[in-house]
Design a protein that fits this description.
mainly alpha
Length: 432
């Protein structure tokens, strides 16, 4: 990886160029919002059809079981084959690839990457692999940004900013979280809050959300009742939760890399047999626990409802912790965020149950700690604490948890850093 700075000081745009760049960022956001909204709507339909098929398959007995397992195996292998055949750059999350492009320059055909990411992501995530929709939308948005920058003959530095702005717009649309999308780009992809980068990123995210909400609605992705402010006595519990999330994040990162390293040994037929085997495993899990496969939004919503029993929550947490890394090892298009949100909510709720048993007068609810868990786990895995906090708030509409989330994310990042575990996307860039 090159150590060359992403944004060169000698290519910073002047006032007129900045205005043009800001105008183009709106176009990037509009197109990204349209594509990402359609992607989300198709995924929602695919989830419904998958659930419908699983319910019907149970009436067929063994034939239904085999149909489900072989069907998901076939879909997963097809998603992996499309990537390897038409656009290898579209494999996996896409975020490490974009980070690489921001540093060394674009490679590959952005239109092919966007098309493969769209249809491959529909197959992989809609088929049941435990992957997030933000991976495809981020890379599609980045490809759109680069295409528009090239079409208007912007210089290399401005094309980088439009690429990053498109990525932020894709993330914003994936979770209906405009601020989190913009902040993720500035905190993680660019590592810069200069005026030009901030303006283009905010412009693209805002316009993408304006367009996508026409199709997806105004409400946060997860419905959570209004939560009150927590007393200062909850702060020590938040710090301890953050410490545990730091350990858990390190374990999760190493699980992802272990799954990738193990699966790298099986590359026959463009990796389709590897994807088929993992898809078959997902099919077996889906037969018994259909809520645990796919992107995981219904499962996360159930956790945030605070009504899951301890046993179901515990085994769901263990399975989901490993299904995400295993699914990612297919190299099919799909991200890491959505599975991370589910694991963080589950872990936070489990911690609350244990803490309340030891300290029954804790003035909090399961929802409080599920949301704190989302922010802390994200921060420990990605090492982007500000994005984690804002994402958790925008996803749930809960604005009363900033103080405990600050404590938890601080402890999570400090713990993961002390263990010298690199952020997941840094590791995945090296894995390329």
């Amino acid at each position: 990886m090159s150590d060359e700075p992403i944004l060169r000081s000698d290519e910073k745009p002047g006032p007129l160029s900045l205005f043009a760049l800001a105008s183009l960022s709106i176009a990037v956001g509009v197109f990204t919002g349209l594509v990402a909204a359609w992607f989300r709507m198709f995924l929602h339909s695919a989830d419904g059809w998958r659930t419908y098929f699983i319910v019907r398959a149970h009436a067929w007995g063994l034939l239904g079981f085999l149909s489900l397992v072989l069907g998901i195996a076939l879909i997963a292998s097809l998603a992996a084959w499309i990537v390897s055949r038409f656009a290898p750059e579209a494999s996996g999350s896409g975020i490490p690839y974009l980070e690489h492009q921001l540093r060394v320059g674009w490679s590959g055909d952005p239109l092919s990457i966007a098309i493969v990411k769209f249809f491959g992501g529909l197959l992989a995530i809609g088929g049941g692999l435990v992957l997030g929709r933000e991976g495809p939308t981020v890379q599609m948005g980045g490809s759109i940004g680069h295409l528009i920058g090239r079409a208007f003959q912007r210089n290399q530095n401005e094309c980088r900013m439009l690429l990053a702005a498109g990525a932020g717009a894709g993330l914003a649309t994936a979770f209906n979280a405009p601020i989190a999308g913009a902040v993720f780009v500035l905190e993680e992809l660019l590592g810069s809050f200069n005026l030009a980068a901030t303006t283009t990123t905010l412009g693209a995210s805002a316009s993408a959300i304006c367009v996508s909400r026409v199709f997806l609605g105004q409400s946060p992705d997860f419905q959570v009742p209004a939560l009150g402010f927590l007393e200062f006595g909850v702060f020590p519990a938040s710090l301890i939760l953050g410490f545990l999330m730091g350990l858990l994040g390190v374990a999760y990162n190493r699980s992802i890399l272990a799954a990738l390293n193990l699966s790298a040994r099986f590359t026959q037929f463009r990796g389709t047999l590897r994807a088929a085997a993992i898809g078959a495993l997902i099919g077996v899990v889906g037969w018994f626990m259909p809520l645990l496969i796919g992107a995981g939004d219904p499962l996360t919503q159930n956790v945030l409802n605070g009504k899951m029993l301890l046993g179901a929550l515990a085994y769901g947490f263990v399975l989901h912790f490993f299904l995400g890394p295993v699914s990612y090892a297919t190299r099919a298009p799909g991200g890491l965020f959505a599975p991370m949100l589910t694991v963080g909510a589950q872990a936070g709720t489990l911690f609350f149950m244990l803490w309340r048993h030891l300290f029954p007068y804790l003035n909090a609810t399961p929802q409080h700690f599920a949301i704190i868990g989302i922010a802390a786990f994200f921060a420990s895995v990605v090492r982007a604490p500000v994005t984690g906090i804002i994402l958790a708030v925008e996803l749930t509409g809960s604005f009363s948890l900033f103080l405990p989330m600050l404590g938890a994310t601080f402890a999570a990042v400090a713990t993961a850093s002390r263990l010298k575990d690199p952020p997941i996307y840094e590791s995945l860039r090296e894995f390329r």
